[in-house]
Design a protein that fits this description.
The complex is a heterodimer of chains A (about 210) and B (about 300). Chain A is built from twelve helices and no strands. Chain A has about 210 residues and is mainly α. Chain A folds into two domains: about 110 residues, Fumarate Reductase Iron-sulfur Protein, Chain B, domain 2; about 80 residues, no CATH class. Chain A is globular, with a radius of gyration of 20 Å. With about 300 residues, chain B is of the alpha/beta class. Chain B has 13 helices and eight strands. In chain B, the strands form two sheets. A four-stranded parallel β-sheet of chain B has the order 2-1-3-4. In chain B, strands 6-5-7-8 form a four-stranded parallel β-sheet, with helices on both faces. The chains are: A mainly alpha (about 210), B alpha/beta (about 300).
Chain lengths: ~210, ~300
C-alpha cells in the first residue's frame, strides 16, 4: 500500500513538496511560516545528531528535497522536549511537525532503515494498542530483542542488575508477563482506533484521488 | 470537605510499574491535604511522546479524547488532574487541539461513537502541581510542615514536559521557580543556580538511543554535584527514571562516581509533613537518600 500511496503522491504533487506537506503532514501548514532564524536547531538537546536540524528541514521542504527529507533520520532525533516550540519566534509547532513528518515517512514507505527510535516507537504503539495500556515489562524485553535473539540475550544479561534493582523497588513486576494491565472495554477500544485509522486513511486517500 | 478531582493516573503509575512510587507518595500527600482523586473509569494510555511512530494524528487524538469523554461522563464537575508529565501534556494538548480544529473534533467524535462516548472539551486539564500551588497554596503547604528538610541541598529538576509547551501558570519556560519555592516551603535549601533545571533527559530516546540519552543525563547529574546537591527533585516520572536508574551505566561509560538520589516532590512533602518512609514510598527509589530517610525516621 505504502509504495502505491507514495507513487500517487509523487504524481499528484509533482515538484511541489511544500504543498504535499501542507496538505498531508500533521501541522504541515505551518512550514511556510518558518523564517530560517535557526533558534530551533540551536535549542534542540540532540541538535548535533540531526543530519538536518529543523530549520534546514523546513528549507529543504521548500526546495523540493522530498526523498532527502522523508528518508532522513533527523526527525527521529526529536525527544519531544518542546524547547523549539517554546522559543520559535513565529510560533511554529515544530515538535508536532517533526512527529508528523516522521509518521508520514512511514505511511508512504520512505522511512529510514533500521532507525532505532522508529522501531521502538512502533513497538510502543503496538504494545499500548494491544491492551489499551502500556505493558512496561514486555516493552522492555521487546526492546532488548529488537536486533535478534543472540543480541537480545546479550543486552538482557547486561541489564540484569538494572532489572533486579527495579524489581526490588517494586517498579517492575514479572507478573506483567501474564496478561498485565489493560482496559476492560477492549473490544470498544479497538473498534474506536480502527475507525480513527480508517478516517485518517480516507483523508490521505482523498488527497491522492482528486488530481 | 475534601477537594475532588477526576484523576488520570497513567500507565507508569500502575502497580508494579516504573513510577508506582510516585503514585504511592501522591496518595499519601492527598490524605494529608484532604484531596480526593477519583480515577477515570477504564482510562487508557495517552500515547506518550513516542506514539507518533505508529499512531497518526487522529488515532492519537482519539486516545486522549476517550479519557476526557469518560471523565466528562463520570465526573462532570471535576477538573481532570494528572501526575505524569506526558499524560498531562497529551490530555491537555488534545483538549485544546480539538477545540481549535472543528474537523478534527468531528472526526474524533465519529471514532468515539464506537465506545458510545462524546468529547465536548468543557473541562480543564491540570497538573497535580497546579492543584498544590493554586488550590492548596504555599502557605497552607508550609502550615503542614512538621519535620522541615533542614540542611538538605536540593537541585530542582523541572525537566521538559511539565514546563513546555504549557508549563505551570505564571512561570517562565527558561527559569520556572515553583519547584524551588516548594523546596523552600518544606524547609530545604533550593539550589537556584542549578543550570540543568529545564534540560532534557532524552525522554523515550533513552531506550532507543542510550548513548545519546546518557550523555544528556550525565550533565544533569554533574551539574547537581557542582552545585553541592544532596539530591535532585523532579515532578516527572520519566525524568526520575532516566536520571536515577542508569547511573551505573553512566559511571561505567564516563568513569564517574555518581550516586545521586532523585526524588519526587511528593516524597519530600510526605516526609516534611511527618509521614514515614513507607508512606513516602522511599523504598521505591533505587538510590536512597540517607539524609531524607533520617528525617523520615526521626
Amino acid at each position: 500500500m505504502s509504495t502505491a500511496v507514495n507513487q500517487a503522491m509523487v504524481e499528484k504533487y509533482k515538484g511541489n513538496f511544500l504543498k504535499e506537506v501542507t496538505e498531508n503532514v500533521e501541522e504541515g501548514n505551518w512550514v511556510k511560516m518558518c523564517m530560517q532564524c535557526g533558534v530551533c536547531s540551536g535549542s534542540c538537546p540532540l541538535g548535533p545528531h540531526w543530519d538536518h536540524p529543523p530549520q534546514e528541514i523546513f528549507m529543504m521542504i521548500r526546495a523540493n528535497k522530498r526523498e532527502e527529507v522523508l528518508s532522513s533520520t533527523s526527525m527521529w532525533m526529536c525527544t519531544s522536549c518542546y524547547n523549539c516550540i517554546a522559543r520559535c519566534p513565529r510560533g511554529l509547532p515544530i515538535t508536532h511537525i517533526m512527529h508528523g513528518l516522521a509518521h508520514y515517512s512511514k505511511r508512504i514507505g520512505l522511512k529510514p532503515k533500521n532507525q532505532p527510535t522508529e522501531k521502538f516507537g512502533q513497538m510502543f504503539w503496538d504494545n499500548l494498542t494491544k491492551k489499551g495500556r502500556v505493558n512496561e515489562l514486555k516493552l522492555g524485553l521487546g526492546l532488548y530483542f529488537k536486533d535478534g535473539f543472540a543480541e537480545g540475550v546479550k543486552v538482557a544479561m547486561s541489564k540484569q542488575k538494572l532489572g533486579m534493582n527495579m524489581m526490588k523497588a517494586k517498579r517492575m513486576s514479572p507478573m506483567e508477563m501474564l496478561g498485565g494491565h489493560g482496559v476492560s472495554d477492549l473490544a470498544g477500544f479497538h473498534a474506536m482506533l480502527k475507525k480513527a485509522e480508517e478516517l485518517e486513511a480516507a483523508r490521505v486517500g482523498e488527497n491522492t484521488d482528486k488530481k | 470537605m475534601a477537594k475532588e478531582y477526576s484523576y488520570y493516573p497513567g500507565c507508569s503509575s500502575q502497580k508494579g510499574a516504573s513510577s508506582s512510587n510516585l503514585e504511592k507518595s501522591v496518595e499519601t500527600l492527598c490524605e494529608e491535604l484532604d484531596i480526593k482523586l477519583n480515577p477515570i473509569p477504564d482510562w487508557n494510555c495517552c500515547g506518550a511522546s513516542i506514539g507518533y511512530a505508529g499512531g497518526g494524528e487522529l488515532p492519537r487524538m482519539t486516545l486522549s479524547a476517550r479519557n476526557i469523554a469518560l471523565s466528562e461522563k463520570h465526573h462532570p464537575d471535576q477538573d481532570i488532574v494528572a501526575t505524569c508529565a506526558a499524560c498531562w501534556l497529551n490530555t491537555r494538548e488534545v483538549n485544546e487541539r480539538l477545540l481549535h480544529n472543528p474537523k478534527l473534533k468531528e472526526e474524533t467524535n465519529i471514532a468515539l461513537q464506537a465506545v458510545k462516548l462524546e468529547f465536548s472539551g468543557k473541562k480543564k486539564v491540570r497538573h497535580m502541581v497546579e492543584v498544590l500551588i493554586e488550590d492548596v497554596g504555599y502557605d497552607a503547604l508550609a502550615a503542614k510542615v512538621k519535620k522541615p528538610l533542614e540542611g538538605l541541598k536540593i537541585a530542582g529538576y523541572v525537566g521538559c514536559q511539565t514546563n513546555r509547551p504549557f508549563g505551570i501558570d505564571g512561570e517562565s519556560f527558561e527559569n520556572p521557580m515553583y519547584l524551588d519555592k516548594m523546596v523552600e516551603t518544606l524547609g530545604g535549601e533550593a539550589l537556584t543556580k542549578y543550570e540543568k533545571k529545564v534540560a532534557c533527559c532524552s525522554g523515550a530516546l533513552m531506550f532507543s538511543e542510550p548513548e545519546k540519552g546518557q550523555a544528556l543525563v550525565k550533565d544533569i547529574i554533574e551539574s547537581a554535584y557542582d552545585n553541592g546537591a544532596n539530591m535532585i527533585v523532579t515532578p516527572c516520572p520519566l525524568c526520575q527514571a532516566n536520571v536515577e536508574i542508569y547511573q551505573d551505566d553512566i559511571n561505567a561509560r564516563y568513569k564517574t562516581n555518581f550516586n545521586m538520589p532523585v526524588m519526587y516532590y511528593s516524597q519530600l512533602m510526605d516526609v516534611a509533613f511527618g509521614r514515614n518512609a513507607k508512606d513516602a514510598a522511599l523504598d521505591g527509589n533505587i538510590i536512597q537518600s540517607m539524609e531524607l530517610r533520617k528525617i523520615a525516621d526521626k
